[in-house]
């Protein structure tokens, strides 16, 4: 059996192929080391999975969640944690049920998976150029060097096209397409957002906690969550933005509207009472000088202008209309969407090998016997929180076990 790709999906596929009795497992990785992307996940700490039920897991996949049912039954989060523990990598649960290695080192996950595939032959620096298919069945691969390696089963675990510096450059899409599979267009997901608002760019470096970001598509609210948001030199990033981007991937930019509630814990009425009082008791001061009580310094200076009010106005002279503008803006700063950032900055790829061409109970191709797909190459993706790595782990495990069974029969 040949496994193409030494990322999360490929390494666990090798573990399960060996566990299920496959005698000759060869893993081909074009980089000079295994798990190059895994190494940078979770800011180097690797949010390996999410400690939730299968049903909750599926609810955290905005796209093609049902396809994952069998893979998640085969390798639920708890089983993955047990397996990693047996291989010497204990894990712990943090906020939002996110699971990390206790050591806080992503490299320990790669070390554990490497231990579990000690019997596999790993060939680094080996770039696959194409699949060899004979009589409708997988028969081997051709390397970029021209070398031909023959086998009776192939697992394609080459990842998507996000963060291509880690090796995921979309080669597998080419293999899948050439073998007759439908490959859906790819879009970046879990990715920062470019805005056209000059004030947002002026706030670059500012990180806001406990704000609510809402996303409207064609004026329908599709996402609204409280959390952390970061202003950057192009627009916004941070957890709230990344999650919102899952709903935007592939959509028409003109249908997208974003709004930021700076004071989600306070109703408009409560804020109005407070603002009225502050304006009255600071009548001789300029409006901008009292904004520091509401916002961090860099935002306080800009806020009246964002709301369309002159910040030099004396508090006593702020009109009812201007007060309403300030309140409306506090509860919903409009942010003007331009585009999602590119694949170079995307955590995950939306799109890829059509799930209709893959048997969800085995990860086998429906077009070519002995051919399997695993990981981000498949058109499934999840929110942040360990879901994307677990998609790779569970589909990889199922593909490895299924390919071993196929070879036995
Ligand atoms: C910065 C960042 C942080 C992330 N953090 C998290 C997180 O904390 N939790 C989480 O759940 N998800 C996270 N993700 C997403 C997660 O890392 C991916 O979804 C997951 O790694 C996909 O695994 P994979 O094995 O399918 O693909 P990859 O990890 O991309 O592995 C594919 C491998 O195939 C190799 N390859 C490609 N083409 C060829 C070829 N022709 N021949 C030989 N080898 C080839 C590549 O070199 C690569 O090593 C993060 C992603 C990024 C970019």
Structure in words:
It contains 14 helices and 22 strands. The protein has 409 residues and is an alpha+beta fold. It folds into 2 domains: 245 residues, FAD/NAD(P)-binding domain, CATH 3.50.50; 150 residues, no CATH class. It has a 7-stranded antiparallel beta sheet with strand order 17-16-13-14-15-12-18. Helix 10 packs across helix 13. The chain starts with a strand and ends with a helix. The site of flavin-adenine dinucleotide has 39 residues, from helix 1, helix 2 and helix 14.
Helix percentage: 25-40%
Gross geometry: elongated
Instruction: Name the ligand types.
Output: flavin-adenine dinucleotide
Q: What's the overall average pLDDT, rounded?
A: 97
Task: Name the poorly predicted regions.
Answer: none
Query: Biggest sheet, open or closed, and with what strands and sense?
Result: 7 strands, antiparallel
**CATH homology group of the largest domain:** FAD/NAD(P)-binding domain
CATH topology of the largest domain: FAD/NAD(P)-binding domain
**Helix vs. strand class:** alpha+beta
Total DSSP helices = 14
Distance between the termini: 14 Å
Q: What is the correct CATH architecture of the largest domain?
A: 3-Layer(bba) Sandwich
- Beta strand %: 15-25%
Cα-atom radius of gyration: 25 Å
* Structural domain count: 2
Tell me the total number of β-strands. Answer: 22
Report the CATH C-level class of the largest domain.
Alpha Beta
Strand order of the largest sheet: 17-16-13-14-15-12-18
């Amino acid at each position: 059996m040949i496994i193409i790709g030494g990322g999360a999906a490929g390494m666990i596929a090798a573990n399960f192929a060996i566990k299920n009795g496959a005698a000759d497992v060869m893993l081909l990785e074009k980089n000079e080391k295994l798990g190059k992307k895994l190494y940078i996940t979770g800011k180097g700490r690797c949010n390996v999975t999410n400690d939730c039920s299968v049903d909750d897991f599926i609810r955290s996949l905005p796209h093609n969640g049902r396809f994952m049912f069998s893979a998640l039954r085969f390798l639920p989060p708890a089983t993955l944690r047990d397996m990693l523990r047996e291989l010497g990598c204990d894990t712990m649960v943090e906020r939002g049920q996110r699971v990390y290695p206790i050591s806080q080192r992503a490299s320990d996950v790669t070390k554990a998976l490497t231990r579990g595939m000690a019997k596999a032959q790993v060939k680094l620096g080996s770039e696959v150029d194409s699949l060899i298919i004979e009589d409708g069945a997988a028969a081997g691969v051709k390397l970029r060097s021209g070398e031909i390696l023959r086998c009776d089963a192939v697992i394609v675990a080459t990842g998507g096209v996000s963060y291509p510096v880690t090796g995921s450059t979309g080669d597998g899409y080419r293999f899948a397409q050439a073998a007759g599979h439908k490959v859906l267009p790819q879009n970046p997901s879990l990715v920062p957002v470019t805005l056209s608002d000059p004030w947002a760019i002026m706030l670059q470096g500012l990180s806001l906690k406990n704000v609510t970001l809402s996303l409207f598509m064609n004026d329908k609210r599709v996402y609204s969550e409280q959390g952390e948001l970061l202003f950057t030199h192009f627009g916004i990033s941070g957890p709230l933005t990344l999650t919102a981007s899952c709903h935007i991937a592939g959509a028409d930019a003109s249908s997208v509207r974003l709004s930021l509630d700076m004071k989600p814990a306070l109703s408009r009425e409560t804020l109005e009472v407070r603002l009225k009082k502050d304006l009255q008791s600071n009548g001789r001061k300029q409006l901008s000088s009292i904004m520091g009580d509401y916002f961090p310094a860099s935002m306080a200076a800009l806020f009246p202008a964002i709301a369309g009010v002159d910040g030099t106005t004396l508090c006593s002279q702020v009109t009812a209309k201007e007060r309403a503008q300030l309140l409306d803006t506090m509860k919903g700063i409009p942010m003007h969407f331009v585009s999602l950032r590119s694949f170079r900055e995307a955590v995950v790829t939306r799109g890829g090998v059509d799930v209709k061409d893959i048997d969800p109970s085995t990860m086998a191709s429906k077009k070519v016997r002995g051919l399997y797909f695993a990981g981000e190459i498949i058109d499934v993706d999840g929110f942040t929180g360990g879901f994307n790595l677990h998609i790779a782990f569970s589909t990889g495990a199922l593909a490895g076990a299924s390919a071993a069974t196929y070879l036995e029969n």
